[in-house]
Amino acid sequence: MASTRRRHPTLDDVADEVGVSRTTVSNAFNRPDQLSTALREEVLRAAKRLGYAGPDPVARSLATRRVGAIAFMLDTGVSAAFSDPALSITLDALAAEVDREGHALLLLPGGDHGGPPADRVLNAQADLAVAYSLADGAPALRAVRDRSLPLVVIDQPYVPGAARVSTDDRGGAVAAARHLLDLGHRRFGILSAQCLSEPRGGPMTAEEAAKSMFRDNRERLTGYVDTLATAGVTGVPVWETSGTSREQAQQAAGKLLDADRRPTALLCMSDELALSALAAARQRGLSVPDELSVVGFDDTPPASWAEPALTTVRQDLQRKGRLAGELALRLLAGRKAPPPVTLPVELVVRGSTGPAPD
Amino acid sequence: MASTRRRHPTLDDVADEVGVSRTTVSNAFNRPDQLSTALREEVLRAAKRLGYAGPDPVARSLATRRVGAIAFMLDTGVSAAFSDPALSITLDALAAEVDREGHALLLLPGGDHGGPPADRVLNAQADLAVAYSLADGAPALRAVRDRSLPLVVIDQPYVPGAARVSTDDRGGAVAAARHLLDLGHRRFGILSAQCLSEPRGGPMTAEEAAKSMFRDNRERLTGYVDTLATAGVTGVPVWETSGTSREQAQQAAGKLLDADRRPTALLCMSDELALSALAAARQRGLSVPDELSVVGFDDTPPASWAEPALTTVRQDLQRKGRLAGELALRLLAGRKAPPPVTLPVELVVRGSTGPAPD
DNA sequence: TGCGTTCTCTGAAGCGCTTAAGACATTCTG
DNA sequence: CAGAATGTCTTAAGCGCTTCAGAGAACGCA
């Protein structure tokens, strides 16, 4: 009819077309029981005729005070994040859980301060925020608080009022270190993920590493170092890999292996790092586990595909994600955050560790 | 002051507190040049005092008709999707590109019909949708059209009005098949990703596979089959892997390898599949490339880590993502979609292919 | 028949913000 | 010093929807 491109039809247009009130049209879409079937169908027909696809999500959100999205805040970029199976598994479980209540995930990738920029958080269209292993004091966390958005933190220090789920990182690290000690190892190297918010990379002392801005990093390191210390092993070299690429990690592992007194065992803060260490060893013709033992962390699927399969610290990533999702839904339902949950870990011994060479 | 938990402060509250109009407060946040610095700072101070963190994103969106989010529609779940490096690289580049204009990504994972459920799309708070390799006729696509959301499609059939970027899948498949023919191979197997929206898995004829609901699937298959046919090789067995797990893929590859007349070459529709095929070969003590040649598709990072490193068809995933992002921004700026772009591919010959055994 | 229910539908007040247009005062031009 | 230009702030009209509190009509029961 109208020749010119008209603006999007609205509820009112449909109402006018049918000759009913706006409320009735709204009900036709949202509460079918509030009007007669006949009228409802007439409304729906008119809507289709006019090209009205249903209530505008934004306007609806304004009226209902509910968006239907959860902001997922990362420390890293999207790619780096997802190249880590540990994250994608967790995220998937989380997504599946909140999907049940119709919530989608809004991805807020990291900027330069250990998390997404504050203004991205302030402008995010979301009912709740999930923080996944952000750096301590990340601006994003402040922004969440300023907006008083409900918050779920994963693998992070406790935030008052927020729900929290984390992993027994220290316990896992202790088990890993003890396992190697039990095998007779005395010369170690620690391969660490990025510790500070600034990418750096390179050797660092245990003291420096203990100041990492990432809790899981700190916890794992402390677990390793303290346990080794109880056996009188101190001054263990730590090498931080900057960025998340396999190449960088492999290079970092190489540095540890090329040291004067080559370690007989490598404690790696993630399976990804451990796999890179395996590659570095192979490059040097070092036999694993005969000449070198390697242990990872997380027990992601690739850990068991490797040759030799990785000895690693297993955590139930799926459960972690699901739990975070449940916590999110609980907060969204207006309930209070339960006490923080720490999930257990378990050492899984496979082929990448063996007795220390003589 | 007030003892009871008060509702969130709004612009008006701040305006009242300072004794100015609502517009002025809005300007203090959005257009600093519209008021005196002194007043602006007073407003900001008052806002802070009241715990007002800035304009509500939803209300702002309603007024500005802009959300600041892009809906990314997937065929699969989050985890399955991201375990594929090809996707995470593409997505990362896309995210980085649209981030420049302040757009975040809203993830809409797949349901049961080759894409996210229609109502999820209808309710998504987003300015634009990106469809990544959805099944033909996915309900999500219809929903996008009904909402008349701008659309960018990646690796999918052309949709009128939408911007499109895709890969020369067929050309790549042709190159891969020709390479193997040139090496003297005459007995082939094709390892295919999931073809239909229903998970199935198992052997299928080339005819069935050509009816795949996924364009890249069809294209690659056609490229393989047609090229082999030109050399007189027909009746090539195709095995579809259901789901996306490594285990399933490995099993499927095994089925091809355990056939009566074992193929000497495997054409795999992705690097992930090819890596699984490598594992299946190893399991059977088959030497690659002496007894078996394997070629992948995509040239994702793990392809070059494998032993032997994968011969594969390289596509520039980063560029694909960036381009999709640029197209998105262009549509959002109100400009028309340019003609569809098809990105070139290139065969990368590495260690996993060699002359056919006698 | 009278009165309380139930069923349909409407009126109107928001949800919290942006922005065009304009009022008023101050500062610049020549 | 008149008139134009500029700077500062306000008024008011939306953006498109939900939902509470009814208004009428039709129905059930005794």
From TrEMBL, chains A, B:
One of its GO terms (molecular function) is DNA-binding transcription factor activity. Keywords: DNA-binding, Transcription, Transcription regulation. Coiled coil: none annotated. The keyword Amino-acid biosynthesis does not apply. InterPro entries: HTH_LacI, LacI/GalR-like_sensor, Lambda_DNA-bd_dom_sf, Peripla_BP_I. It comes from the Bacteria. The keyword DNA-binding applies. Signal peptide: none annotated. Residues 9-64 form the HTH lacI-type domain. PANTHER family: LACI-RELATED TRANSCRIPTIONAL REPRESSOR (PTHR30146), TRANSCRIPTIONAL REGULATORY PROTEIN (PTHR30146:SF138). This is LacI family transcriptional regulator. It comes from Prauserella flavalba. The lineage of its organism: Bacteria, Bacillati, Actinomycetota, Actinomycetes, Pseudonocardiales.
